[in-house]
Design goal:
The chain is about 80% helix and about 0% strand. The protein is an all-alpha fold. Helix 2 (about 25-35) packs across helix 3 (about 45-50).
């Protein structure tokens, strides 16, 4: 039982050091101090914290998610159109090359007209 508590405390200490070294503790402390110093407390402490940490609010996040979904659909549509256009172009090139080869065979097989004068 004692070993479990020691391991748990070691994990907590390790996590605390991680938060301090990454600057998370300082950032959170500054935001909480700014909230504390507000004379007129905001209606939503969470939104205040998100704003100060440059996070979008929940409605903004949902709007961004919807925009992302719309753009993903548009991208997929454009990619499909692009691939189809490339395929058509390749088919046209192949058809043109075959047509040119066919024309060349026809002209090569024709004998030059003799002048019997």
């Amino acid at each position: 039982m004692m070993r479990y508590k020691e391991e748990k405390e070691a994990k907590k200490e390790s996590f605390r050091k991680y938060l301090e070294s990454s600057g998370a503790v300082d950032a959170l402390t500054k935001v909480l101090v700014a909230l504390y110093e507000q004379n007129d407390k905001p209606s939503s402490a969470l939104e205040f914290i998100q704003q100060k940490l440059s996070c979008p609010s929940i409605p903004e996040y949902e709007k961004l998610q919807a925009q992302f979904s719309d753009l993903q659909i548009r991208y997929n549509d454009l990619l499909t159109t692009h691939r189809n256009t490339c395929k058509e172009l390749e088919e046209m090139k192949s058809s043109h090359v075959l047509g040119m080869a066919s024309t060349k065979e026809t002209t090569d097989n024709e004998s030059p007209a003799k002048d019997d004068s």
